[in-house]
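This part of the workshop introduces the protein records we will be handling. Getting from the letters to the tokens is the skill we practise here. The record below serves as our worked example for the rest of this section.

…
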Amino acid sequence: MKAPHTKDSVAVDMRQAGKIAVLQRLRGARIVPIIRTPIGSQAVTVVQWLYDAGFRIFEITMTVPNAIELVRELSSDPALLVGAGTVPDAKTARACINAGARFVVAPWVDGSLAGPCREADVLLMLGAATPSEVRAAIAMGADVVKIFPAASVGGPLYVKSLRSVLPQVPFCPTGGVEPEDLAAYFVAGSDFVGMGGALVDSKRIDAEGRAAHPGGGAPGFRVRRGRSALIDARL
């Protein structure tokens, strides 16, 4: 797959963006699509659908086959902000950064990821659920804390409670975030959210990564309604 290129002029080349600019872009977008599919071709299709829907930020998880190559291909477009998710160790983090990732994500606290990110001025997002884990993530170099699994630990009300005792920490709730809950997450104090299955229905993608798309419309999207909810929540 060739990286999709936009015809619009590019104000910022995200390939060279430092972590401060990346954080600003994430906060402005408010939604980070997380690409996690069992087959590489499906990931390519999902990225294209989301791109067609207007998304320009993608987190490619390392559970996707040939994930680093997909990061490399997408990062060739200066308009796209591409990150690497579920990064297991420092070696993989470096490989992702060398491929063009401008943010690195792990759903746990792992201080070994801080070095490669710091060296390249790449944003690091570490996962946590409790106040102690949030503090540990920040102490180990996280620029953003991924509240995971957000829905399971209490959703927006839980984020609100965390925000009351950790007012300065950037939060990205992820895991079970649904379109209808977006406004509540932002009111609770989330800087942005991560969404995967709520954006695209993986059951409508076949083994070749093509849509079954019964009924027409945007293939594979769970919705026209859901997409409207996403747009409304950004305003």
